[in-house]
Here is the input.
Amino acid sequence: DIQMTQSPSSLSASVGDRVTITCRASQTINIYLNWYQQKQGKAPKLLIYAASRLQSGVPSRFSGSGSGTDFTLTISSLQPEDFATYYCQQSHSTPPNSFGQGTKLEI
Amino acid sequence: EGQLVESGGGLIQPGGSLRLSCAASGFNVSSNYMTWVRQAPGKGLEWVSIIYSGGRTYFADSVKGRFTISRDKSKNTLYLQMNSLRAEDTAVYYCARDVTYCGVGSCEGTFSDPWGQGTLVTVSS
Here is the structure.
């Protein structure tokens, strides 16, 4: 099975900051990488799929990049509503569609 | 876009069985890939199971042989039958629709959207 490793596990930032979260796959996954945002007590929400394609309705301050094994999620200017936990997920050679361990973004 | 609503969670003793339901609206469960993901208290997301539109099913190693996934076309509902439950199965269980997309040279990518609100399963004596 493909293992996904996110870094950092937690991150402190301020409103207006530019933030980058990284995700590394244990083997190449093409561009089959998704990013989700999860707020406390809520279901995950899809932000980005295919490494860089923004899901409809997601603000343009979110962007993704990468291919192969190394990927990044960038938030260009943090807003108060962006403080949440972020997960990457691979969908290459599925199943299982394994998730990273999560990155908690805190004030 | 569609909506999913889970039900069936609750408190169950170790070794017991429980069936979760996931009612869909706005799209057909039988025509889509449908998946279950769980999240133990304070932990990350764990993929559990998928049923493809053609009926093929897969399970995480942690639940293989104990859980089954199925669907009812007439009720437009997805199910997760959980048997021989263990304390480590305690989690919020989410259902989601998996949507396929293409990458470079192949179309094997999927993402999960929408998700249900989740239902809590607690395995404890």
About this structure: The longest strand of chain A covers residues 19-25. DSSP finds no helices and ten strands in chain A.
